Amino acid sequence: xxxxxxxxxxxxxxxxxxxxxxxxxxxFSSIRSIAAGMGDDDIPNLCKERGMVALVSANTQxxxxxxxxxxxxxxxxxxxxxxxxxxxxQALTPERQVAIISGNVQAMATxxxxxxxxxxxxxxxxxxxxxxxxxxxxADAESRKKKLP
Length: 149
Prior knowledge:
The chain is of the alpha/beta class. It has seven helices and six strands. Helix content is 47%, strand content 20%. The protein has a six-stranded mixed β-sheet with strand order 2-1-3-4-5-6, with helices on both faces. Helix 6 (94-114) links the parallel strand 4 (79-83) and strand 5. Helix 5 packs antiparallel against helix 7.
C-alpha cells in the first residue's frame, strides 16, 4: 500500500520508513520529492493517479486549510493519517516524525488493510487513534489551540 507524506513532513522520512516495507507492507513517498510546491487542491488527484491509499499529514495551526484537503481526499477515496506530537511543545523534527510513524506503522497497516473505505487516523507517540469524522479532527485541533500558551 502506498502512502504520501505531505509537505509538512521531511522527505527523508519516507526513505527511512521504506527500509522496512517488507515488514509492514507500506511504501512511503514524499510530496516534496515527487511534486514539490503542489497546491492542496491538486493533491487528491495526485494520490489517485499514483495509487496512494492515504496521505500522512501533520496537525498544523492553519487547520482550516488542511480541513478542506482532508475532506477532498476522503471524498476521493483516500484515507487521512494526521500526525501530532504527544506534547504540543515538541517540534516535529525528522527524528520525531520517524519515531511516531515507525511506532504506529503496524497499526496503520492493519487499519488501512481492514478498512472498507477511506479512514481517518491520528498517530502520536502514545499510539494510533481512529477518528470517526472530520468534525473530531476539527475539535481536536481547536482544543489544542486553546491549550497553547
